[in-house]
């Protein structure tokens, strides 16, 4: 890699420096916009004791769910965990720690972490188990709880297009958590469908500036559908 060129040629290089007990922030929502090949590389590496911050944990046999197979995940910070039987089994057996976080709060934890904001107040979760033990303040007659932001040792992200400088464009709903996750990693790794030359992306269309991105790799993707619903004729 030279100058501002952030493109790497292998997944080993993309995830270089990954070790046991790290915190990884992963973009995606369900199976939409997940960095599936970076997840596969984490599985291949064999690292253990990971804390994974992501909206959910994939499904059995795909996405982040594959990291449960060899018990590589120690803790999940998620808003939804209902699509994975192995996840349920490990949770009920006490083998997996889970921190359930309201979805909007989780997104803001990532965004705030990337912006250098250590904590923020939100009304979401006040008066529920989510708010237990957290500082409460009243603003304009309403109670709010203090939530700490999140940063990770790595952030893994899926984008549609990138240039060699790491500027990113996401496609439709595959934006989901990816732009927030991209800002919150000490090392942010992005896999993309297409890499273009600098200047080919319209600056007004860039969702994440390259200053947040450390490594870019071009991948091929399966793009599974999590749940297919059809109507009979």
TrEMBL record:
Q: Which UniProt keywords apply?
A: Transferase
Report the SMART domains cross-referenced here: CoA_trans
Show the Gene3D superfamilies listed in the entry. Answer: Glutaconate Coenzyme A-transferase (3.40.1080.10)
Query: Could you tell me which InterPro entries the record lists for this protein?
Result: 3-oxoacid_CoA-transf_A, CoA_trans_fam_I, CoA_transf_BS, NagB/RpiA_transferase-like
Q: Does the keyword Magnesium apply?
A: no
What GO annotations for molecular function exist for this entry? Answer: succinyl-CoA:3-oxo-acid CoA-transferase activity
Q: What is its EC number?
A: 2.8.3.5
- Check the record and name the PANTHER family matching this protein: ACETATE COA-TRANSFERASE SUBUNIT ALPHA, KETOACID-COENZYME A TRANSFERASE
| Cross-referenced NCBIfam families | pcaI_scoA_fam (TIGR02429)
Family, similarity comment: Belongs to the 3-oxoacid CoA-transferase subunit A family.
Provide the protein name. 3-oxoacid CoA-transferase subunit A
Give the organism the record lists.
Answer: Simiduia aestuariiviva
């Amino acid at each position: 890699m030279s100058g501002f060129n952030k493109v790497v040629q292998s997944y080993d290089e993309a995830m270089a420096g990954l070790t046991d007990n790290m915190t990884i922030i992963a973009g995606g929502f369900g199976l939409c916009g997940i960095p599936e090949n970076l997840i596969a590389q984490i599985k291949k590496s064999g690292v253990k004791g990971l804390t994974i911050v992501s909206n959910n944990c994939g499904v059995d046999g795909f996405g982040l769910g594959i990291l449960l197979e060899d018990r590589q995940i120690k803790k999940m910070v998620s808003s939804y965990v209902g699509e994975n039987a192995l996840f349920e089994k490990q949770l009920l057996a006490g083998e997996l720690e889970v921190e359930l976080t309201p979805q909007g709060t989780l997104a803001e934890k990532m965004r705030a972490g990337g912006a250098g904001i250590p904590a923020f107040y939100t009304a979401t979760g006040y008066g529920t188990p989510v708010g237990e033990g957290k500082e409460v303040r009243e603003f304009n007659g309403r109670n709010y709880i203090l939530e700490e932001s999140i940063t990770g040792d790595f952030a893994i992200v899926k984008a549609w297009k990138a240039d060699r400088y790491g500027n990113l464009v996401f496609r439709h709903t595959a934006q989901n958590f990816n732009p927030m996750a991209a800002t919150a990693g000490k090392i942010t790794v992005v896999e993309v469908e297409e890499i273009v030359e600098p200047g080919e992306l319209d600056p007004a269309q860039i969702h994440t500036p390259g200053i947040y991105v450390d490594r870019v790799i071009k991948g091929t993707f399966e793009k599974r559908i999590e749940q297919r619903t059809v109507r009979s004729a």
